[in-house]
Amino acid sequence: MAVTLQVEDLHVAVEGNEILKGVSLEVRGGELHALMGPNGSGKTTLAFALMGHPHYEITQGRVLFNGEDLLEMGPDERARAGLFLSFQYPAEVSGVTVANFIKQAMNAVRGPGNEISLLDFQKKMLEKLELLEMDESFAGRYLNEGFSGGEKKRNEILQLLMLEPKMAILDETDSGLDIDALKVVARGVNALRGPEFGALVITHYQRILHHLKPDVVHVMMNGRIVRSGGPELAEELEAKGYEWLRQEVGA
Amino acid sequence: MGKAVVDLGEYKYGFRDPEQYVYDTGKGLSRRVVEEISSIKGEPQWMRDFRLKALEIFEKKPMPTWGGDLSKLNFDEVRYFVRASERQGRSWDEVPEQIKRTFDRLGIPEAEQKFLAGVSAQYESEVVYHNIRKDLEAQGVIFCDMDTAVREYPDLVREYFGTVVPPGDNKFAALNSAVWSGGSFVYVPAGVKVEIPLQAYFRINAQNMGQFERTLIIAEPGSFVHYIEGCTAPIYSTDSLHAAVVEIIVKEGARVRYTTIQNWSTNVYNLVTKRAVAYRDATMEWVDGNLGSKLTMKYPSIYLMEPGAKGDVLSIAFAGHEGQHQDAGAKIYHMAPYTTSTIVNKSICKNGGMTTYRGIVHVAPDAHHCKSNVKCDALILDNRSKTDTIPDMEIMNNTVAMEHEASVSKVSEEQLFYLMSRGLSEQEATLMVVMGFMEPFAKELPMEYAVELNRLIELEMEGSVG
User: Fold this and answer.
1) A85 → closest Cβ in B414, B421, B425
2) Comparing C-alpha atoms, which of A4, A1, A191 is closest to residue A83?
3) Residue B432 and residue A96: Cβ atoms within 8 Å?
4) Closest listed residue to residue B119, CA positions, set B234, B274, B206, B227
5) From the CB of residue B144, how many other CB atoms can be counted at a distance below 10 Å?
6) Which A residues, 86 through 105, put their C-beta within 8 Å of a C-beta on chain B?
7) pLDDT above 70 covers what percent of chain A?
8) Which of A165, A168, A162 is nearest to A100 (CA)?
């Protein structure tokens, strides 16, 4: 089955409060969708719900990933099925090196009997570190411990490149990055693009979209997607602001 | 081998060999038993007297009422001496077949081939296999079991034996002094640096058999040695007692590191007295890992006797079962000015287990300009388990730089979600956080031991989720 993420009428509650109030979208292999919207509109909730965070309760709707019921799977099964989430605020794990973590994650995704050889792993790691303009020593640091905001984001993209998922959700990976870092991150994501890879890029601002060139742009407000369109929608938002759209759709 | 697949609920090294003993003093302790031990060993009169005096002290001293629960420990049910083979093997070929099989399963010869200077493996109460590399012998380094040392190096032994941990120190030190058997003797001459670690492997095999090894290490001025002790024990249905004494003398400018990983089966009372004295500019390092046992009470201690002496204690404790208690920590005595110490303790409890950090930092009145840093981190994996921190500071000098940090943490939901979102199962994710927590300890171990520790932790963590 070709790569597809189909979200249908998704309702999500956190501690009894409904945050998502019926979200539908479909991302296919080869496509890159941008999900924009003001703070608090529910973008991160969608990301966490799709990845299976236990605090996010699905109250209605369904999600199919490559035809399979995503909501039946635990977060680890979703990852093994080829879904990836780049975290806005990834957790720190003291004492676990970036390299060790990524290697174990890769082997978990590849499955027993299909583990990557140490040599192949090292080769790939060095290659991706170079692409992301990261020093080799990065691989030996403890996971997110003492990382700057920019380092955390690069680390997420490093994992993306190493794991090579079928579908990636990037949750505000651009926030807090300077323009050079933004270019590097965009380069990483673009390196993966192809017919077997889809992405949903959550962002507050348009600037990363200059580098990522989305096929579709969605705008979320108050737990719903209020408008979808081509790349020009992002430019219109940039020019006119969210307030313009809020009045138009009455959200 | 009965089972091809190890039952996850069972102690991994719980295999056991049929007992074939040459000597056995039976259960219980008396003057007769102590005399018998001494005469079987053909000891000189002074050691016999030492033992008998220690027995009197043991009988007079009350059971400690602090620390863990010792109420179920019955001294009459313990066997105080068993000798598994009559003579010592100097080469691997001479070691009895059955004992060899046990060691084979523990991987000892392999370890030796790789990097060890000598293997002194204690099976039952006595060392049966002992080998030391010729270059060490040429340097004048002595590494043998304690019984041999009493016979062959009586002057050295008599000068130091019982001087760091006298029999009157505590009830279990007294017991050990009365019935001790086996353990290692290490002597490093002045200026000699032993490049490769010396290793001893201890193992209890007989039901109701106490193990009372006695280790003495003397590091002459400017020398260095790293001694490694690892323990695994088969599982038994009734309680077992391990009461060891380790004494270390670190002379001027010398450095000794003593690394232990213990993984006693869950019925063992592990009550060990470990103490070192460090003189001018000397460094003593205890690296101490405690897994398994029913109750461990162990507080490696260092007396910093002269200016410039330095003491480090790095330890971990893992309590993974209901009723299991790791009461462990460190004691540092700053007896002289300009002495420094560091204590790092990490503990993990799960499944109803309990960990206690218990420590003392003592600074004597005239020990000015001392520095001490204490850090205790506890990780609790579920709500049934418990951890305590009992740090004691006895500071009698006001020019001391003293730091103390303690933390208690859990594996956070955000950590688990993050790791699981990359494909790790909940169990793998939890294990990863636990391993990370242990890393500051594991990285201090030689590679082989780090691998072994990881395996043991993995085993302890199995079935801990869901």
Assistant:
1) B421
2) A4
3) yes
4) B227
5) 20
6) 87, 90-96, 101, 104-105
7) 99
8) A162
Q: What is the pLDDT of residues A45-83, one digit of tens each?
A: 999 999 999 999 999 999 999 999 999 999 999 999 999
Residue B79: name the closest of B210, B203, B179, B205 by CA: B210
Strand partners, B362: B333, B394
Report yes or no: B150 and B136 within 8 Å, Cβ to Cβ: no
Tell me the HSE value of B428 on the side-chain side, using a 13 A CA sphere. Answer: 20
User: How far is it, in rounded angstroms, from Cα A43 to Cα A23?
Assistant: 10
Q: Which of B412, B424, B438 is nearest residue A104 as measured by Cβ atoms?
A: B424
Element holding B317 (H helix, E strand): strand B310-319
Among chain A residues, CA nearest to B433: A93
Q: Which residues of B touch A56 (CB under 8 A)?
A: none
Q: What single-letter DSSP state applies at residue B454? A: H
Q: Which of A108-112, B131-135, B413-417 has the lowest mean pLDDT?
A: B131-135
Render pLDDT for B311-333 as a digit per residue (tens, 0 to 9): 999 999 999 989 999 999 999 99
E strand intervals along A122-236: 167-171, 198-203, 216-221, 224-229
Torsion region of B3: left, alpha or beta (phi above 0 gives left; psi -120 to 50 gives alpha): beta
3-class SS of residue A128: helix
What is the structure's pLDDT at B97?
59
- Flag whether residue A170 sits within 8 Å of chain B, measured between CB atoms: no
Query: Contact, B335 vs B304, CB < 8 A?
Result: yes
Distance from CA of B383 to the nearest CA of A (A): 19
Dihedral sign (CA B458, B15, B185, B169):
positive
Strand residues in B165-242 grouped as ranges (E):
184-188, 198-203, 214-219, 224-232, 240-242
User: What letter would DSSP give residue A91?
Assistant: P
**Percent share of chain B, pLDDT over 70:** 79
Look at residue B105 in the predicted model and tell me its pLDDT. 56
Quote the ipTM score: 0.97
pLDDT band at B218 (very low <50, low <70, confident <90, very high): very high
A246 and A221 Cβ atoms separated by less than 8 Å: yes
Distance of alpha carbon A8 from alpha carbon B210, whole angstroms: 67
- Do B90 and B210 contact (CB within 8 A), yes or no? no
Query: CB-based contact (8 Å) between A163 and chain B?
Result: yes
Angle among Cα B267, B287, B369 to the nearest 5 degrees reads 130
Q: State the nearest Cα–Cα gap between B319 and chain A, in angstroms.
A: 20
pLDDT at B26 over 80: no
